[in-house]
Amino acid sequence: MGERGRLAEGLRAYWLIAGMWVRSAMTYRTSFVVTMCGNGLMTAMDFVAILLMYAQIDSLGGWTLPEVAFLYGLSATSFGIADLVLGSMDVLGARIRDGSFDTLLVRPAPVLAQIGADRFAVRRLGRITQGGAVLGWALAAVDIDWTLPKVLLVPVMVVSGAAIFCSLFVAGAAFQILAQDASEVQNAFTYGGTTLLQYPPTVFGKDLVRGVTFMLPLAFVNWVPASYVLGRPYPLDLPEWAAFAPPLVAVACCAAAGLAWRAGLGAYRSTGS
């Protein structure tokens, strides 16, 4: 079976498993609505903290509230999509500890699809809805000289950012296989990464900005392309074309995550449970 065939098989398995969990969640629709709204309200607390800061200041690192809301909306929406699709990857460590990961290895379906769709939680739509609402408000409130490239770049940022975060989930899962858990390390880069990107790069030290630009390219989720859209100086004085690099960065990250997953899966040794 070629790469295309394996991809189709993986997507089909993912769809079937996720659909099972969706049907299970929709059995209790009131509970589903309540938990989704609760999820959205919990994630909204991050933006409430930003609003409280701006109640005392006019700008943060030289960025106005609508500009920071633009960063927040991009980061929260992109991460929300990735969290919906692959957020269950952090349970891999628990599966390795209790020996149930071995069961997935013998099933006639790609392991990555099984792990990604495991306990698929539709309630995570609350995070996407909340992030999208902030992004919509920011687009209406921020002062931008709109051009066609800028208009097209906004959805590209969301999709590319989601792909970059998905690659982090997969790479983190591969690390969990090697470390026999360490889900906290994965969360530091995924959940910690989205929190970092909700604030302008000007409030962080240059070493940190370099790290999330060249080593772990989270800056291409929003910092770099958003600087182009807002007409602000690029972090680290990057060239202007860097604003249009997120799709290429996303492809590179996904390829690297795929290699890491294969390496991790190849190095797995059963717990013997």
From TrEMBL:
Which residue positions does the secretion signal occupy? none
Please give the superkingdom of this protein's source: Bacteria
InterPro entries (alphabetical): ABC-2_transporter-like
Looking at the UniProt entry, the stretches that span the membrane are 32-57, 69-87, 152-175, 208-229, 241-261
Enumerate the UniProt keywords alphabetically: Membrane, Transmembrane, Transmembrane helix
Entry protein name: ABC transporter permease
